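Researcher: Please generate the 3D structure of the following complex. Treat every line as part of one assembly.
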Amino acid sequence: MEGISKEEEKKLELRLGPPGQEEETSFSFGCLSSSMSNNSTNSAKRVFSEAIEMKTGEEGWINLNSDDGNHQHQKLWSSSSANFHGKIQHQQQQTKASFLQFPKASQSLPVMAKESSQACCNKVVDLQRQSAAEKKPFSPSSANTAVSNVSQKRTAPAPVVGWPPIRSFRKNLSSSSPLKPSPDSQSALPDEVASKKPVETCRKGLFVKINMDGVPIGRKVDLMAYDCYDKLSSAVDELFRGLLAAQRDSSAGGKQSNQEATPVTGLLDRSGEYTLVYEDNEGDRMLVGDVPWHMFISTAKRLRVLKTSEVSGLSCEC
Amino acid sequence: MAYSFPVEVLEHIFSFIDSDNDRNAVSLVCKSWYEIERWCRRKIFIGNCYAVTPRIMIRRFPELRSVSLKGKPHFADFNLVPEGWGGYVDPWVLAMGRAYPFLEELRLKRMVVSDEALEMVSKSFKNFKVLVLSSCEGFTTDGLASIAANCRNLRELDLRESDVEDLGGNWLSCFPESCTSLVSLNISCLGSDWSLQSLSALERLVGRSPNLRRLRLNRAVPLDKLANLLRRAPQLVELGTGTFSSELRPDVFSNLSGAFSGCKELKALSGFWDAVPSHLPAVYTICSGLTSLNLSDANIQSSDLVKLISECQNLQRLWVFDYIEDSGLEALAESCKNLQELRVFPSDPYAMEPNVTLTEQGLVAVSEGCPKLESVLYFCRQFTNNALFTIAKNRPNLTRFRLCIIEPRTPDYITLEPLDAGFGAIVQNCKELRRLSLSGLLTDRVFEHIGTHAKKLEMLSIAFAGDSDLGLYHVLSGCKSLRKLEIRDCPFGDKALLANAAKLETMRSLWMSSCLVSFEACKLLGQKMPRLNVEVIDERGPPDSRPESYPVEKLYIYRSVAGPRLDMPAFVWTMDEELALRLS
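Model: Done. Output below.
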């Protein structure tokens, strides 16, 4: 990226200042202008509304050369078809700038492989699992075919966290199946009312808190995202495996290499180090797995992952 | 000249200036105005509690009476922010308890509030009047009991959409008999199981609050109690019912109907949990006065919805499920010519196939029939560019447009093209657009349109969209008024972010999750921009245990004069100087 004209340079200048300001001001990283230090106050508003003097000749743009061949890191998340990479040079502050040009035509900027954008969608981007075989080349001209690749042909989409963007309380309460329109006659008879009681098994989106022994960070799981205990168990495993490993690493004092986090298994049959229990709507602590699934989700208020050694005397045989 | 006016005169003049922006402008005129203004400012709004510290706030504004704080980023509403991230109000309450003995109002949104904090509030501020906890969590009904018991002049207690742990007990009876000052009580987020004692405590409280104007009940309040409550509070302007289902015998129905007709001031209705259609006519008598109707907790079908809505000719705001269907929205467009705000929520968001006939047609109809429509939130399963063109043409006065096509990356279902042109028309025609949420199949082109035209846009939400950094670049370089940008699952990486780093200081915050921003870039940004807090939220362990080019899970960047925060959990990584030195 070389030889940028003055006009183009002006277009790409960073601007600092309140929106709508007409004067040409620019901000360079490496040189917070001395006018800043003249501020006699610390008020946030003044800081943000003040325009920074332009310092000509001083550089300090974040440098993004895309034309060097230094591929020091294997980029597992960008496919081989992309020339584009976000490699950042560790430049000193005063280096000569070289601006990244953003041409108007979007085609000339190499696009990210579709695979990497799909990777974004997964709940946990486990980059070590990306294999070359999974990558599909993507080009803008085949937008339509690309569309059909992502169209609703999927029969069972993986549940995406936080999508669609609806508040949890809204999901929990929209429990009843839709009621039939009322007959034209007015008064509600008792049996008509009784037949319209909300059917609990249709509840969608049931987030309950889950805590794990030894992990201070609690999480929430959506019980409606699963239809059986095994799926719930593996979700819990995924949820806490990384956290446990991180804790182990930090308590071992220092950087461990990327050791594979050990899976959390045997949650349901007390064969593993941890066991999954829940608190029901009466406040009792119960083992997960003993009652039919639909009964479980309608009574579970909260989950816990306890050390199996501490789970004693929890019996659900009545 | 400023010094020829006595301070008292200036103060008096300033007392008429209410808006925060105007106040800030006043404080910039000269040093003496700055001094005068800061002593007489009574109200402050802090959009990000980590942008500033309590100490800084107290030092500059020693005489505040009303403080509003927001904590977690918006995407926390959709469980994208891990628990324990932050947003604790306790240090604020601690500091304010000492500095502002005359504090009257505290409004919090998306913050973590402890029972101890609530107790401190109730005991530190003798004249405390207003407590609004919007989408907050971390407290129980014990905390509410302290507020009830100790705040002698409480006017407003509003718990909208907070997550409150119900420990049973009877906190409502902690309001002393002498408390008659309530104007607004919103407990709609509380549970569905209440004792008879709680219910009668509620009745007594309502009965002795002649100034009560806004009452939003929770699901636990049964329908047969509602009539009693209404008769005790005929002056209500806003009502949220409890459960709207029961064995409604004819005499109970007429009693309820009569109670409603006694509430001649009612302007807003909500609640309606479990609503049975045959009970709805009980509210017909007050429908013509309603300006706001929230049926988003009611599973009522289209024909019954239409019957109800057609009684409400003066409706300005409607929140409803997609049970209303296109036909219901067409009827709405016919009857409610004053409609300003429409929100349509999905009844079955996880179903693959649509369960109702709600399409782009419904929204088009409303855009045609309702000339004052300016705020839209619409969940549906299909859309077309043409529909967006039509909506944009009909309603150039839109200020908030949030469209959520439920399946990510859904194209125009007729042409199979991306929806770039459609949204482009929206930003081009609706010049006053302040808030926009995108969905459907979108390329970088839509961001080019947005950057070019959306000059008044303040908040933008993007999901599963774009092809490259160019998209993000267009937004950051073009949207002059942008304050909040939230992005998830888009192929935006380092380049656009770093090239527009200075822009970030003009915004409140930027959220990016499941994108392609590397840890390297985050470090660089954190090092180079001392007035930005760059938070990497990553639950996979320390970012430096992976190659630096790996994308981070989540990234939250916000401007701050407070420096790095001290209450970060283990999964939040930032660049403080020490760390920066160690890693460089």
